[in-house]
Hints:
By secondary structure, this protein is of the alpha/beta class. Among the domains are: 243 residues, Aspartate Aminotransferase, domain 2, CATH 3.40.640; 32 residues. It is built from 15 helices and 17 strands. The strands form four sheets. It has a seven-stranded mixed sheet with strand order 4-12-11-10-7-5-6, with helices on both faces. It has a four-stranded mixed sheet with strand order 1-2-3-15. A four-stranded antiparallel sheet has the order 13-14-17-16, covered by helices on one side. Helix 3 runs antiparallel to helix 11 and helix 13 crosses helix 14. The longest helix has 22 residues. The C terminus is likely disordered.
Amino acid sequence: MVDKEKIFSLYADHVNGKRVAGWRRVGLDILEQRREGCYVWDVDGKRYIDCYNSAGVFNVGRANPVIRQALIAAVATEDIGDFLLVSEAKALLASRLSEITPGDLNCVMYSVGGGEANDYAIKLARGVTGKPKIIAMERAYHGHTGFSLAAIGRERYQDPFLPMVPGFERVPLNDLDALKRALSGDAAAVMLEPVQGEGGIHCASAAFLRGARDLCDRHGALLIFDEVQTGWGRTGRMFCSEHYGVVPDIMTVGKSMSGGYYPIAATLFNARLNEFNLRHPYIHLSTFGGSDVGCRVALAVIDYIEQHDLCARAESMGNLLIERLRSVCARYPQVLREVRGMGLMIGLQFADDTHGPIMSQMLARRGLIAIYSGNETSVMRLMPALVADREVVDRIADAIADAADQLARQAPGKAAQK
Length: 418
């Protein structure tokens, strides 16, 4: 039997005690043991629906047995491979990515995680254009590595490490006039998430994305979509940009590309930009990026999403969950102000900044792992696995309705003042 308290103590001593204290406060002091589909079990036997999913890593479900077998088969005959040499796995995945990604995004640079993929997207934009400025969005999240950290729309992540890499400017998402003013002759790229995840599930409008595409074309700037969270069926399409019919010059993917088993990410771009790599074939290297094992897993993930039509399921189950949650919002406006999102990438906007941590605790008691946004504590993200069915959706909605009812009855005066 695992000694849960001992494990938590070791983690606090040697990894991060502040995290342990925080999870205890909101009732999420869970030690994962069994994992299956939409569910995870604590070592004490309690079952939870995982609505966080490590910010969208487990689109194909927790501990997916098909992906596990792909990993086992890969390690039976292969290792990670030499990152400088050609391999079948790297080539096959690159070809597959070129088939399924929008438009002419048929070239790839592999990475280990989304931050690294975004780092290379920024480097590529500057290298190709010879221009320094990157226009990112307020509330944006692109990772905690060097270039990506400079693009984040939250200063508290940056302040301990100043000065940042120079040349970044931020504008509000969906403000086309602000983007017009920011774009100038020295702009290398406009970088954005089609749905801001860490920033609170704010969706880019079709008009803004199409306007951004047009402005980039007119000013000789590149358009970068960060689809690390929105990709792999999460919003009801394989990639979120497909909802809008807007093709970026560069797109980054990661998280669920791994199947939850082996880390892998990628920066995808068109052949015109690849001329820069041909001139500088060793300009960006990643020892573990695009490992042979990781590529085999990613190929299995793509097959699984397509064969089980998880994009369509994310759309239908997402529409159902959003409909039910909007009903809860209408009943308890003193608790929930808005429900927004696409597919199974949903944000709950609370009426009070304190409601996020409180609701995390209440929902944990009701068997949900649901975490408020790191960039916005008044917003809770719901990102269950795309294998979710009607029963899972109903359990999520029922738990939130019950918690909202309890919270409304506990503090009606305070809520009414907001």
